Each structure stands twice: as C-alpha cells, then as structure tokens.
Amino acid sequence: MAYQLYRNTTLGNSLQESLNELIQGSLNTYRFCDNVWTFILNDVEFIEVTELIKVDKVKIVACDGKNTGSNMQNE
Amino acid sequence: MISSPLLSPMEEEPYLEIYLDQCLNQDEPASTSSHLFSPIGPYDAYLHISSNQETLASHLEPSKDTSDFSSVDLSFLPDELNQENIEQTFTEGKEGVEGNHETQGDPSRLQELSEKNNNDICTHNLSLSNSGLHQLSDGTSTLPSPENSNSSFFPLTSMTPLTPMTPVSEGSGIVPQLQNIVSTVNLACKLDLKKIALHAKNAEYNPKRFAAVIMRIREPRTTALIFSSGKMVCTGAKSEELSRLAARKFARVVQKLGFPARFLDFKIQNMVGSCDVRFPIRLESLVLTHQQFSSYEPELFPGLVYRMVKPRIVLLIFVSGKVVLTGAKERSEIYEAFENIYPILKGFKKA
C-alpha cells in the first residue's frame, strides 16, 4: 500500500536539505544539468593544514564518471 | 476556453468572500450546490470543474451583504487563537515566514509584492480563521451560526447573550496548522527544460531520472516541478496564498528566461495539516471500534491511518497524540475533519 503523502515528503526532504544549506551555509546557487553540478558559494574559508584562504565567491563545477573529475574555480 | 488571468488583490477579495459564504451556508446544501451549476446545457460539467470563479461571480451581488468579515471584532476569541491570527497575518504580510532573517535578494520587487499581497493575505487570513473557527465555540457561539445565518450580524462582546450552537459539546480549542500545500498551474507554453536548467538559479534537471526541472525558491520556501508541456507543480508552501505567490514567482522566472508563460488554472491539489491533542491515544482500541475507517499495522507503520468519509480526509493518528491530516482541497476540510475526530480521540485517551 503506497501512501501518496509520503511521496510528498520525499520532495520535501530534498527541499529541507538544500534550503537548510542555503540558509545556514553560504550556498548561493546550485545547478544540475547534463550530469554536471555547479555550485556558487559565498564567503568561504579553505582551511589547509598550514594555510587559511578566505574567498568571497567560489564556483564549483563537478562532474562524475568512472574516473571522477572535479574542477574548482575561484573568483 | 475559460482562462483565469492573474487577478489583482482587489479583484480577488470578492471571490474570497463568496467562498466564505459557502462555508457559512453549509447546512443549506440545496442553495450551495445551486451556486455551482449554472443553467447552460452541454457545458455544465466543464463549468463546474474549471470555472468556479465564473459561477461565483454571477452570485457576487446577492450574497455579498450576508457576511462581511473584514471588520470583525476578534477580541472575544481565547488569547492563543487570537494571537495565532495576528501572528499569521503579521508574518505572512511581511513575507518573513518563521523568522527568516535572510536579506532579500530583490528587495524592491518583493516589497511591491508584499504590499500587494498584504491586503488580500490579511483579509484572507482573518476571514478564513473566522470561518474555520466559528465551529470552535467554547460554549458561546462565535460568528453567525447556521441557525442565525439569515439574521443580521451582531458585534460580539462578552455581554452579548448568545445561545450555544450545540449546548452539550464544546469545540476542541485546537487549530490544526497547515504544513504543506501542493498546487498545480498551467503556464500554457512549451518549455525548453535544458535552457531553463542552464540559465535559472537553483535548478536541477536529470532527464534520465525524471523528466522535469526541479526548481526552488527561498521565499516562500517552495519547490516546483516544471514540465516541458508547460505544466507546473508547486509544493512546500504553508498556506494557500503562499502557494499561489510561489507559483507566480516560478512563472515569472520562466517568463524572464524568454518563454511566453501565463498563469492558467491555478488549483490547490492537496493540503496537509498537523496538530497535537496533548494526550496519549489507545490506537488498538480505536482500530477495533472503527474498523471500517481505520487501519493500524504497528509493524508496518506506527500510526493509525483513519480514512474519514465526510469530509474525505486521511488522518494519521499516533500514540503520542499527534495527528496529521491530509487529502484536503480546502482549509475548512482539515478543520472539519479534526473537529470530527477530536471527540472520538478523547474517548480513547490512555490512562
């Protein structure tokens, strides 16, 4: 017996996840098209062992595949 | 073909009042149903389904004088309910739902929108709260009860002698809160989903998995499924007005991308509400006595599924006393269903 109201919440759950990130974190926009994810983040800190890099805007372009490729562009 | 172009808040108000009149006249099914069917032969069914506004407009004049809720004095309502009304109108009027203090991305546009919607949201909320709450009498009948529906409207004060609608039973005093509204609208033009996904912000498009663009906006916090046919589903809003507002915002996004989007046949398909009766419930006994309506399989799902016949609402009832109501097309159905179930649940209170 499939409860239709739960199909609703599946959508609602993904909504919660995305928008929580939007509100709490610094995710400005996201996009998914042709299996490519594009994220734009604001006010990001990249923390390496030695260095700390602060950036106003970061664009992350990520695609997946057998040999996972991930590109990062800082602005 | 009957289309419903975007109405300004001014034009929408009379329709809201008509809807409220129908709520009031619930005990006169003959007259209510006559509102829905106009005497035009072969198009009866079509009119009934898609043009509530058309038939409602024809009845605008006669029914307008029986009830005007915009000037109702709510001070007699118990404090928590009154507070609720004020909070609802306040937050929705400012478009800052649930303390969302994020700065608006497009302040001028949203400002204009909030001003436009302030009027109809405020009156809408007041009116809807009234029509929903008139059944929640605490021994004193509130707004015009069905018996008095034909008499003139009395301003209600604590001094006014009132005969209770139903002398024995009181209202529950609990108002279910709407949690989710699902609505659909037709943008009436073919859409290039790839173009939308590439140019719009906050969009996902994975045609292999699902043949629609999934787009989200922050205010109101909603998600839309946009199909290449031009049809759109909007979910996640907490009220009817917010759902409509969100759908319009999505339509505008599509329009700005260069498509001739319109806003046809906006319809609310489902409403979900929830509340708490504040006492534990004996689900086992409930399923025994209400077998034909209930199904309870604790190994499958911890809640009892109660399928109410009138109104046609599904309720999920949990041991803790929390209740979820779904399947409504109108807010009043949620309220009515809860008022129906409350006395039943009281009879199955634990310990």
Automatic annotation (TrEMBL), chain A:
Q: What GO CC terms are in its UniProt record?
A: transcription factor TFIIA complex
The entry's localization annotation reads: Nucleus
Tell whether Transcription regulation is among the UniProt keywords: yes
- Look up the domain of life of the source: Eukaryota
List each coiled-coil range. none
Pfam families (UniProt xref): TFIIA_gamma_C (PF02751), TFIIA_gamma_N (PF02268)
Fetch the CDD domains from UniProt. TFIIA_gamma_C (cd10014)
Molecular function terms in GO for this entry?
RNA polymerase II general transcription initiation factor activity; TBP-class protein binding
Where does the Transcription initiation factor IIA gamma subunit N-terminal domain start and stop, copy by copy?
Answer: 3-24
| The entry's keywords | Nucleus, Transcription, Transcription regulation
Q: Where is the Transcription initiation factor IIA gamma subunit C-terminal domain?
A: 25-65
**Alphabetical list of InterPro entries matching this protein:** TFIIA_a-hlx (IPR009083), TFIIA_b-brl (IPR009088), TFIIA_gsu (IPR003194), TFIIA_gsu_C (IPR015871), TFIIA_gsu_N (IPR015872)
Offer one example of a GO biological process linked to this entry: RNA polymerase II preinitiation complex assembly
Identify its protein family: Belongs to the TFIIA subunit 2 family.
PANTHER family tied to this protein? TRANSCRIPTION INITIATION FACTOR IIA SUBUNIT 2 (PTHR10966)
Instruction: Report what the protein is called.
Output: Transcription initiation factor IIA gamma chain
Which organism was this protein described from? Monodelphis domestica
Q: What is the lineage of its organism?
A: Eukaryota, Metazoa, Chordata, Craniata, Vertebrata
